[in-house]
Amino acid sequence: MFVGTGSDVGKSIVNTALCRILLQDGYTPAPYKAQNMSLNSFATPDGFEIGRAQAVQAEACRVDCHTDMNPILLKPSGEKMSQIVLNGKPIGNRSAVQYFRDGNQQQLVDAAHQAFDRLEQRYNPIVLEGAGSISELNLRHRDVTNMSMAVYSDASTYLVADIDRGGVFGSVYGSIELLTPEERKQIKGIIINKFRGDIALFDEGRKILEDLTGVPVVGVIPAFKDIYIEEEDSVSLGYKSKFAQDGKINIAVILFEKMANFTDFAVLERDPRVHLYYTNNVLEIDKADIVLLPGSKNTLADLQELQHNGVAKAIIKAHRNGKTVIGICGGYQIMGQRILDPEGIEGSIKELPGLGLLDIQTTMTKEKVTEQTTFKYKQYDTPCQGYEIHMGRSTFGTQCEALNIKEDGKEGVMQSERCWGSYIHGILDNPVVIEDILAPYIEEKNNIEEDYATFKDRQYDLLADHFRAHLDMDTIYQSLID
Q1: What does the pLDDT look like over 203-224, one tens digit per residue?
Q2: Structural domain of 46
Q3: Is residue 425 annotated as part of the catalytic site, yes or no?
Q4: pTM higher than 0.70, yes or no?
Q5: Which one of the listed residues 329, 384, 400, 419 is annotated catalytic?
Q6: Is 470 a catalytic residue?
Q7: CA-closest candidate to residue 6, choices 258, 127, 178
């Protein structure tokens, strides 16, 4: 198990690396995180919902993702509110106070334990991941996913610390010292992550930490830039470029406050013909060749914000100027004529006019669609893959045609070749779709060298190689035997 001194220290990446290392070494690993909080989720093959990080880790293990890998998912949906997804299906919205104090904690603990037990019967070993910091004393008695899970599973547990943010000695020492004796028994090692510079300069630091804690430092992992692993947390978007760039096809992704599934744009981000940036600056939107509206966990609130900050007008202007405008999931709904929420599914906003770019109207519903899907895009015969995770039903008007053909019917809307929307996440992972939307902006079509699935699998091997070179795998394997 990998736990952390705080959030964003790299637990998910470490977990992913070990998943692939264990697979390479002949084991049948599977990931597990009892409780996750993220807007970036994924649909399992059997039509349920889990956190994106566990889906990525399952890919590293080369197994299908399953709700047992993430039985509890919290999806922030508004001010102090989250949708609770239990075993892949939403069971309602709760505030933080309600979530921790309305008596449902034992139900969640039981669900987490049952999911782990089922997973353990099918895979070996299980690679567990904690959440945030292990030293939040005010939350210890409500802990579902950190040291309580380490104790329940009797996991060999490794504490991950981010040296790049500073304070690594205090955060490591304090995190371990604040554990109970029972919890501390599970800690088998320390991993120092995101190191920059000559690792030999940390030899003394390693010894100091080992003397202070009595726990071995089993790895000092250098920071890397040349390995691409899909991220789960949108905090990383704040560090990505927000400005147009000369000499490239400029693609602006509208930066929603409640953006979901930003990994929809991962393939475009690495396309050498493209400069993709996230923005809500109207001047930068005006410079874009293509404007993408992403998914949203609170579509009405994000639409209202677009109308208040001038971005809605900028998107409509881009469309009128012949730019390509595409919406995915919540962005698709926003591009329509109107969004209705008579039952208050998303909050207090009952109805808003959309951008009016697509001839659809959406009504929010309690039922949630979660499924993987195969479809054909526009007039092309090439089978495409994606997944749907959304609430709400959209009805088509007469001034549009279907974008995609699925086995069970039509999906999405195409108002014109440069204006369309779809509920399908991952639609932009398909080369035929990428080439189609870039075609008006390039003289020659240059196909991506390898398909995205092959590219991702190669990245997991590169990640495993990077971690294997800097981890004491002998000690880690010995801890599993002991």
Answers
A1: 999 999 999 999 999 999 999 9
A2: 2-223+458-481
A3: yes
A4: yes
A5: 329
A6: no
A7: 178
